[in-house]
Amino acid sequence: YLTEGITAPNLALIDHLQAPSRAAAALAEHPWNVVILQQGPTTIGLCRDSLVLWTKLFDSLIVKAGARTALMMTWPPRERWTALEETRLSYAAAAAAVHGIFLPVGEALGLVRDAARPALLAADGFHPSALGSFLAALTIYERLSGRDLRRLDRGRLASSARLVRSARRRVRAISTSPPSSRRTSSGPRIR
C-alpha cells in the first residue's frame, strides 16, 4: 500500500485546498483507493456547514483520483468533552454528503473513555495517547477492511499492535526530519 500523510498544525480542510499545502497536488501524483480527511473538532452551525462544503470540494478531487473519501471523526479537548456528539454529527453529515466512509474514531474514544476511563488522551488533554492512537488505528482498520475486530485472533491483534507501534515510530521520525527529506513510503500489507 502507498500511504502519505499531509498534515500541519491548526489547518482546516480548506487550508489544504490552498497553498502552501500540497494536498491537492498529491491527489494527482498517485492512484489512491481511499483518502482520509480530518480536521479539528467541528461542532454546530457554520463550522458544520463549512466541514460539509470543504469535504465536497475535496471529494471532487478525490473521485477524479479514483479514490473514495473517508472522514475521520475527531474529538473535542478534555474540557469540552460534552461536544463529542455534535462532533460526531458533523463528521457523519460530511461523510454522508459525499457518500463517503465515516470513521468514528472520536466516538470509539468516547465509548471507551466513558466505560473504563483509560488514559486515551495525552497530557495536553487533546492529542491521543499511545493507547488512544491504537484505538484510532483499530477503528479505521475495521471500517476500511470490513473485518470485525472481535473476530481477530489474539496473535493477529498482537501483530496489529506491533504494526501500529512501528507506524508511530515512523511518524515520529518523519515529523522530526526536515521537510526536504520526507518521502512517500510503502505502507504495510494487511492480509
Radius of gyration: 16 Å
Low-confidence stretches: 174-191
The largest β sheet comes out as: 3 strands, parallel
Written as H for each helix and E for each strand, in order along the chain, the element string is: EHHEHEHEHHHE
Q: Helical element count? A: 7
If you had to describe this structure to a student in words, what would you say it looks like?
By secondary structure, this protein is mainly alpha-helical. Helix content is 50%, strand content 8%. The protein contains 7 helices and 5 strands, in the order E-H-H-E-H-E-H-E-H-H-H-E. It has helices at 13-16, 23-29, 46-64, 84-97, 105-116, 130-145, 154-176, and strands spanning 2-3, 34-37, 68-72, 101-103, 185-186. A 3-stranded parallel sheet has the order 2-3-4, with helices on both faces. Strands 1-5 form a two-stranded antiparallel sheet. Strand 3 (68-72), helix 4 and strand 4 form a beta-alpha-beta unit. The longest helix has 23 residues, at 154-176. The model is unreliable at 174-191 (pLDDT under 50).
